Amino acid sequence: MKKSRFTESQIVAILKEGEAGVAVAQLTRKHGISAATYYHWKSKYAGAGVPELKRLRELEAENAKLKRMYADLALENTAIKDVLSRKL
Asked: pLDDT for 43-74, tens place per residue?
């Protein structure tokens, strides 16, 4: 997945400018983004602050770690069952 040029705190700042009443066309020109990008960010980050976004990122990382752990354990479990079924 392509990494954004903007950090989450910069995105929140841009969205706050839009909420303050700056026209979308003016914002997109100023920051070099498309209107579609602005509206995508607005739907994704609407009403979220920087601390909430950091917590969300931490939770996503933890979730990915837990999924990897589960996959490893499921693979080991399958291998053990395979070995046990062959011995009987």
From this structure: 988 777 878 888 888 999 999 999 999 999 99
Give the whole-angstrom CA distance, residue 50 versus residue 56: 10
Chain-centroid distance, C-alpha 54: 10
Q: What is the pTM of this model?
A: 0.61
Determine the Cα–Cα distance for residues 15 and 45; give it in Å rounded to an integer: 8
Q: Give the number of other Cβ atoms within 10 Å of residue 56's Cβ.
A: 13
* Token representation of residue 83: 């070995």
Residue 38 near residue 14 (C-beta atoms within 8 A):
yes
Measured CA to CA, the distance from residue 48 to residue 34 in angstroms comes to 21
